[in-house]
Amino acid sequence: MLIHIVKSKIHRVSVTEANLNYIGSITIDEDLMDAANIIANEKVSIVNNNNGERLETYVIPGKRNSGVICLNGAAARKAQPGDIIIIMAYAMMEMEEARTFKPAIIFPDTATNKLI
Questions:
Q1: Whether the predicted pLDDT of 23 surpasses 90
Q2: Alpha carbon distances (Å) from 80 to 14, 43, 50, 72, 92
Q3: Which residues are catalytically annotated?
């Protein structure tokens, strides 16, 4: 049996932009992506701590060391710049593997979205 496990988590980053006139997705600073083991086009879940909104979308790499967290397209209606969000990616694995799996969880500085 396969189960869904949290594979990656970027905990408490600030939304820097919301771009309604884009095709969709979330743009994430590539340094944060690397640290959290998230790749381009990967499906992610996003939770907005400010308003409780939840959504799923895919990732577009943003400029390294920029701190960019930009919700694009319809997702831009779910958060405003300054909102604090949590970004999570999941993996499917066998129960045995899941018992010992260690997710990549990072805690960037919420003021700058830079790695601490």
A1: no
A2: 9, 21, 9, 11, 31
A3: 25, 58
8 Å CB contact between 54 and 62 = no
Mean of the pLDDT values across residues 11-22? Answer: 96
Residue range of the domain that includes 44: 2-96
CB 44 within 8 A of CB 59: yes
Entry pTM: 0.96
Structurally, how many domains does the chain consist of?
A: 1
Looking up residue 49, the CATH number of its domain turns out to be 2.40.40.20
Q: Are 90 and 5 in contact (CB under 8 A)?
A: yes
62 in a domain, yes or no?
yes
The answer to whether the beta carbons of residues 13 and 110 sit under 8 Å apart is yes
- The mean pLDDT of 64-91, rounded to a whole number, is 97
Domain assignment of residue 79, yes or no: yes
